[in-house]
């Protein structure tokens, strides 16, 4: 049985073990997937111990995505640009010394797949992304690859959004700003700030949404986030990040096992368990 895990701190409430157990059952892959709390000051050591004990790959979550980036031998282009890794894959025979550690980030693919599943048209769309932290950095490349008409990144600290837009400007029409320079209308607004965690809402104009706009929050919970409630009251269709979680997991599973999972029943079950 090949071993995989998710590293985080804290990690107790991670849904990844149950998601991957469902994928394994669906595809008939014999894998073991556990949750491991790595020490805050030694992520790479924890990963190396896991490999020495027979680990073949791992997911990485808060706060280790940047640390994981630094313990890879090979990085995918999107991981290099994101500066973060959420998927570690061992190539070669893990028991000998000739293996390499590959790092990728599947968060952006997960977001795009979930948006497509919701029926959101990304090509030609006017997109606004709120926030300029690690979560946003990881999704910009796959979003720009969908050829939106425009992509604005707005952040509380405007300079961070401007720097981010500069880093991705060769991939498409992207601009960065503070919240005060957000006007709209937008066809899709994605909340990638951590403001939802504290029940806060970025200051946004009432003119934000086009008539058939969608609002997506990368967070999820049993109840809609403040941002989604605010968006629903202004006529936008709302989507939370639970689908993104399942889709990024499916992409990681594919990289490890070469098999695609059916995400719909897994998402449905997870939704009921919130
Ligand atoms: P993550 O990995 O979740 O992206 P992060 O890198 O710390 O975490 O980024 C958090 C993001 O949420 C930032 O864009 C932050 O804005 P600043 O860059 O101005 O700090 C944003 N954020 C956090 N709390 C917020 C709040 N109450 N209102 C608006 N934005 C907030």
TrEMBL record:
- SUPFAM superfamilies the UniProt entry points to: Aminoacid dehydrogenase-like, N-terminal domain, NAD(P)-binding Rossmann-fold domains
InterPro entries documented for this protein: Aminoacid_DH-like_N_sf, NAD(P)-bd_dom_sf, SDH_C, Shikimate_DH, Shikimate_DH-bd_N, Shikimate_DH_fam, Shikm_DH/Glu-tRNA_Rdtase
Active-site residues are 65
Q: Which UniProt keywords apply?
A: Amino-acid biosynthesis, Aromatic amino acid biosynthesis, NADP, Oxidoreductase
* Biological processes annotated in GO: amino acid biosynthetic process; aromatic amino acid family biosynthetic process; chorismate biosynthetic process; shikimate metabolic process
Q: Where do the Quinate/shikimate 5-dehydrogenase/glutamyl-tRNA reductase domain residues begin and end?
A: 121-195
Sites where the protein binds shikimate: 14-16, 61, 86, 107, 220, 248
Which EC numbers does the record give?
1.1.1.25
Keyword Transferase found: no
**Annotated Shikimate dehydrogenase substrate binding N-terminal domain residues:** 6-88
* Pfam families attached to this UniProt entry: SDH_C (PF18317), Shikimate_DH (PF01488), Shikimate_dh_N (PF08501)
Q: Which residues are involved in binding NADP(+)?
A: 131-135, 155-160, 218, 241
Q: In which pathway does it act?
A: Metabolic intermediate biosynthesis; chorismate biosynthesis; chorismate from D-erythrose 4-phosphate and phosphoenolpyruvate: step 4/7
Domain named SDH C-terminal is located at 241-271
Similarity annotation = Belongs to the shikimate dehydrogenase family.
Any idea what job this protein has? Answer: Involved in the biosynthesis of the chorismate, which leads to the biosynthesis of aromatic amino acids. Catalyzes the reversible NADPH linked reduction of 3-dehydroshikimate (DHSA) to yield shikimate (SA).
How does it associate, per the subunit comment? Homodimer.
Q: What is this protein called?
A: Shikimate dehydrogenase (NADP(+))
Q: Which organism is it from?
A: Halomonas korlensis
């Amino acid at each position: 049985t090949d071993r995989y895990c998710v590293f985080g701190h804290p990690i107790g409430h991670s849904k990844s073990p149950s998601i991957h157990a469902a994928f394994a059952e669906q595809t008939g892959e014999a894998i073991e997937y556990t949750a491991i709390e790595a020490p805050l000051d030694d992520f790479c050591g924890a990963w190396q111990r896991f490999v020495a004990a027979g680990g073949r790959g791992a997911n990485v979550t808060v706060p280790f995505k940047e640390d994981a980036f630094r313990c890879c031998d090979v990085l995918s282009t999107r991981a290099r640009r994101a500066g973060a890794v959420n998927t570690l894959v061992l190539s070669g025979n893990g028991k000998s010394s000739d293996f390499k550690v590959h790092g990728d980030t599947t968060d952006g693919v997960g977001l795009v797949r979930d948006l497509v599943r919701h029926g959101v048209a990304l090509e030609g769309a006017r997109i606004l992304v709120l926030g300029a932290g690690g979560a946003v950095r990881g999704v910009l490349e796959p979003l720009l690859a969908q050829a939106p008409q425009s992509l604005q990144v707005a952040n509380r600290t405007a300079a961070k959004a401007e720097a981010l837009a500069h880093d991705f400007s060769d991939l498409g029409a992207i601009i960065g700003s503070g919240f005060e320079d957000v006007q709209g209308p937008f066809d899709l607004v994605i909340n990638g700030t951590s403001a939802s965690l504290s029940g806060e809402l970025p200051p946004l104009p009432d003119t934000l949404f086009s008539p058939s706009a969608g609002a997506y929050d990368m967070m999820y919970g049993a109840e809609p986030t403040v941002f989604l409630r605010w968006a629903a009251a202004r006529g936008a269709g709302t989507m939370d990040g639970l689908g993104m979680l399942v889709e990024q997991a499916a992409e990681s599973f594919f990289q490890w096992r070469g098999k695609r999972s059916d995400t719909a029943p897994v998402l449905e079950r997870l939704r009921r368990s919130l």
